[in-house]
Design goal:
Elements lengths: L14 E9 L2 E13 L7 H13 L5 E6 L6 E8 L2
Antiparallel strand pairs: 1-2, 2-4, 3-4
């Protein structure tokens, strides 16, 4: 599937974005969720932070698929998921 990049404002935790897209006149709906993960809870160790992020993605609701991991902003790192159809 081809992808496009749409910039959105910060949403906070567990916010859902709904997109309506028309392809050849047919409407398609897509839901996205952006989660803000505090990946510093296990301390400053980089390996522990990466493992926390891995666990978060692995254990996430299987109705949602990982789309993007953003740049950390202090202690928080944004993780974007798309709802499976």
């Amino acid at each position: 599937m081809n992808q496009i990049c749409i910039h959105i404002p910060s949403l906070g935790v567990k916010r859902t974005i709904e997109l309506e897209i028309k392809i050849d006149g047919k409407t398609r709906y897509m839901n996205y969720r952006v989660e803000s993960l505090d990946w510093t809870e296990d301390g400053p160790n980089h390996e522990a932070r990466i493992e926390r992020l891995r666990r978060f993605v692995r254990d996430y609701d299987t109705n949602w698929e990982l789309v993007h991991i953003g740049m950390p902003d202090g202690a928080l790192i944004p993780v974007t998921f798309r709802q499976r159809s």
